[in-house]
Write a structure and sequence with these properties.
GO terms for molecular function: ATP binding; sequence-specific DNA binding. InterPro entries: AAA+_ATPase (IPR003593), AAA_lid_NorR (IPR058031), CheY-like_superfamily (IPR011006), Homeodomain-like_sf (IPR009057), HTH_Fis (IPR002197), P-loop_NTPase (IPR027417), Sig_transdc_resp-reg_receiver (IPR001789), Sigma_54_int (IPR002078). The structure is a single chain. The chain has four domains: 159 residues, Rossmann fold (3-Layer(aba) Sandwich); 173 residues, Rossmann fold (3-Layer(aba) Sandwich); 108 residues, Orthogonal Bundle (Helicase, Ruva Protein, domain 3), CATH 1.10.8; 48 residues, Orthogonal Bundle (Arc Repressor Mutant, subunit A), CATH 1.10.10. It has 24 helices and 17 strands. It is globular. 50% of the residues lie in helices and 11% in strands.
């Protein structure tokens, strides 16, 4: 270990100084920087030239620099002196950068650590960030200004209280989170996750997001894209579990005219459309082994071929994959290729379930209610403290997706200004709550039931009932009817009454086709795409349905 002094002697002795060191000689000290003799920086690298470079870079700004060429010297330094920032090489002759990082954070928690790494060790460098490193930089260094800016930002963080660090961190990525719909809340785990995601977003590496269904994996992927240098290029998402294998291959890679039945023209795939942008592969664990082979080739070579094509096409995409299954277990069970897993798992981010960050639930609830008000539905609606207590105590197996649906249901059933416990689903309250307007006392169960039944009968027999509703009211009525249907079915089951039998597969298929046609307003191509089948297949099924209708008639 040595206290650096006279780095210019090193430059004088070098017969051919590197471009970076030459830049240091000709660059002035940036204006506006306050020189501080109190700022102490530790540089740990076994290459003497690297230590000298940092001395040249930092001492001219008034920082005190100590250089250690081994893990032993670094440990002596952190036990003898106080440092604000430590710049640590990942590979040391007698130590590992990750272990040294943890030792620095243990002895001097306020010291911010920047890891130096080669590109081939990016995975380990990201692991360092997850262990508490401020950031990492890749060697060889190419941009002096970026290094200076990174160290200055680390100095701003150094020694600050957790709350101050949280504010500084949020100031960097808060506007991006708001723009992409990433509601962070108050939990430390989510703030830490977004800080890590923001830092790795600027590094052009693949990301694997793990989390339960409904935790917001696609929203996190959009956040990473928006914070990346590719933010002005396309972001395209595809659900690998929602399409049959042949359709997924065509969706990903495109197809040539005549490649298969129904391929009436050439079609570009998502890898082609997302060129220079970001491709989000949701439910990657559901992809078949043959699709996995093709994905691996694209990630390794940057080339693919359309279905039925003969000419390779180059693509430059950043892949963010997501899954709610344990891919490592899938690899052990031979259901997922190990080589593809390691290609995707350069950086792994874990989205915690809602039950593990309950302090975020009130923030999310208020956000969803504010969204309803912004859309002109349930203006200025609030939630009572009793209802909030119930919501916060619920386990939310469906996570954020279930929470937003529950809030929308409660808001639809609430005709006042405040959501009460009675407006929440019995699934959430843990009891069968019969909806009742606040302030209205019904004489007894039988009277209430008869009154409700008469009301429903009047609505059913009123042919012009929908015509009397405004456009924005129709979706709420549709939603309430679905909620009512489910509650009636639950009540019948609890009372031991025979429920209507479930629909057969054929009936479900006919209903799905009818709903797709209604949704697409008769557009066969769009309806087929929604159903995940080919257009010719949909035509065939429609002819079969017409034939059945004539037979019945």
């Amino acid at each position: 270990m040595r206290e650096a002094s006279s780095p210019w002697f090193f430059l004088w002795k070098k017969a051919g100084p590197s471009f970076l060191l030459y830049q240091l000689l000709i660059q002035p000290v940036p204006g506006g920087i306050v020189l501080s003799l109190q700022a102490r920086i530790l540089v740990v690298d076994d290459e003497v030239e690297v230590g000298t470079f940092f001395c040249c870079l930092l001492e001219r700004k008034g920082y005190r620099v100590t250089v250690a060429t081994s893990g032993r010297e670094a440990r002596e330094a952190i036990n003898d002196q106080k440092f604000h920032v430590a710049v640590v090489d990942l590979k040391l002759p007698d130590s590992d950068g990750l272990f040294l990082l943890q030792e620095v954070k243990k002895v001097q928690p306020g010291c911010e650590v920047i890891i130096m790494t080669g590109y081939s060790t990016t995975r380990t460098a990201v692991r360092a960030i997850q262990l508490g490193a401020y950031d990492y930089i890749e060697k060889p260094f190419e941009d002096i200004s970026q290094i200076e800016a990174l160290i200055d930002k680390a100095l701003d963080f150094a020694g600050g209280a957790e709350e101050r660090k949280k504010r500084l961190s949020t100031a960097e990525w808060g506007h991006i989170a708001a723009r992409t719909g990433m509601i962070v809340g108050n939990s430390q785990v989510m703030n830490r996750l977004l800080s890590v995601a923001y830092k790795i977003a600027r590094k052009d590496v693949n990301v694997l997001i793990q989390g339960e269904t409904g935790t917001g994996k696609e929203v996190l992927a959009r956040f990473i894209h928006a914070a990346s240098p590719r933010c002005d290029k396309p972001f395209i998402a595809v659900n690998c579990g929602a399409l049959p294998e042949n359709l997924l291959e065509s969706e990903l890679f495109g197809h040539e005219k005549g490649a298969f039945t129904g391929a009436t023209g050439k079609r570009r795939g998502i890898f082609e459309l997302a060129n220079h942008g970001t491709l989000f592969l949701d439910e990657i664990g559901e992809a078949s082994l043959s699709i996995q082979v093709k994905l691996l080739r694209v990630l390794e070579t940057g080339e693919f071929m359309r279905v039925g094509g003969e000419k390779p096409i180059k693509t430059d995409v950043r892949v963010i994959a997501a899954t709610n299954v344990d891919l490592e277990q899938a690899v052990r069970e031979k259901n997922f290729r190990e080589d593809l897993f390691y290609r995707l798992d350069v950086v792994r981010l874990h989205l915690p379930p809602l039950r593990e960050r309950r302090e975020d639930i009130p923030v999310l609830v208020e956000h969803f209610l504010h969204e309803l008000s912004d859309r002109g539905l349930n203006q200025n609606i609030k939630i009572s403290s009793e209802a909030m207590k119930i919501i916060t105590g619920y386990s939310w197996p469906g996570n954020v997706r279930e929470l937003v649906n529950a809030i929308h249901q409660a808001a639809a059933l609430c005709d006042g200004a405040v959501i009460l416990p009675g407006h929440l689903s019995s699934r959430i309250t843990g009891a069968s709550n019969r909806f009742q307007k606040p302030g209205v006392v019904l004489p007894d169960k039988q009277a209430a039931g008869s009154s409700s039944l008469n009301l429903l009968q009047n609505l059913v027999h009123s042919g012009d009932f929908p015509a009397g509703l405004e456009d924005e009211e129709l979706p709420r009525v549709f939603h309430m009817l679905k909620v009512l249907e489910n509650r009636v079915r639950e009540a019948m089951s609890r009372r031991g009454l025979p429920c209507p039998p479930p629909a057969t597969i054929e009936e479900m298929e006919r209903e799905a086709i009818n709903q797709a046609l209604v949704y697409s307003r008769g557009n066969i191509t769009l309806a087929a795409r929604i159903l995940g089948i080919g257009r010719n297949t949909l035509y065939r099924k429609l002819r079969e349905m017409q034939g059945e209708s004539k037979t019945v008639g």
